[in-house]
Design brief:
globular, 3 strands, three-stranded mixed beta sheet
Amino acid sequence: MLDISPKAIFSTYRKYIREVGRLPHIYLRQFYQIQGSDTFRRLLQTEPEGMRRMKLKRILKGLRRLQLANTGDHIAFNRMLDVAYGRVGKLRYELLEPLLSDPHLTRPPPIIPGKEKSRPPVYSMELRALLTSGCSRKNPLKDKDLTVPPTLPKRAKPGTEEARLLGPLSKRREVNARWRFFTTEVKKVLLPLQISAEPPLSDSNANDDKRQPRCIGFFETDILQRTLDLAGYNCILSSPTKRQCAPGIAPGRAPNPFDGRLPARWLRRRYRELLARLPILTYRPAKNASGSYSVSIPSGALTGGKPLASRLRYVGDEDLAWIRDISHDGQH
């Protein structure tokens, strides 16, 4: 029988804190320390024994995953990164919530007259860009799918053959179909940590609030840049090869930004895999109309497919000369 006494809970909490202290970066340690304190505090405030036992089992499962992550299990470590960076869990909902509405868009009229709850879902500009981009989901939608969901029966459109043969579609069924499609597709979207913005145009009106991106997610923080630095992509590009270094001088190494016992190369690879799940949402201002949004993936991300041209090392004159010498020696 699982011990749910306060003494056993405090013992589990001490084990949890020790494992959190072994995480390789300060952001992960701070995130899981705050999350753990809130989780254990709610556990102690739970009085029904059955519910307390269920919560403690969930905590022990997370503790085992944390222990596996600290021993170098890449599946467990990727899960820890996904939770800490809002790919899954509560933080993901907090990143998504502002995108579910748009103060600048007019709410559509109710599908059922007089029923306020029958209004169709609103696709904000940011969410529309994420749903229709291949960088934020595997199978991007088309713009027409957001207006007329492909799961909506053809009877919903008056004048079609199905509507003439079977009669018009029930308004309640149309409302349910639209909302079911909205909630299903939103769950498949990879959310950005923040919204980036391009410099405003010289002749654009900077005081127009409609042209300014909204402050959502980790706005005015450097968490995205720090994640890029942890992935080590900039260090990989700037490091010279042995042939490019002067004789007798070893190539310089970038300082290790990680703590703990896990290899830095292994950790950088985990973060580069994380970058493939962190789309960048960029706001592009326009001159005479509201701006638009574009979605991209960091160039240093490991997507699991063919290598991108931007990730290949630049070939200089010395490299070309070395390649010619090698090919010339191989012919003789």
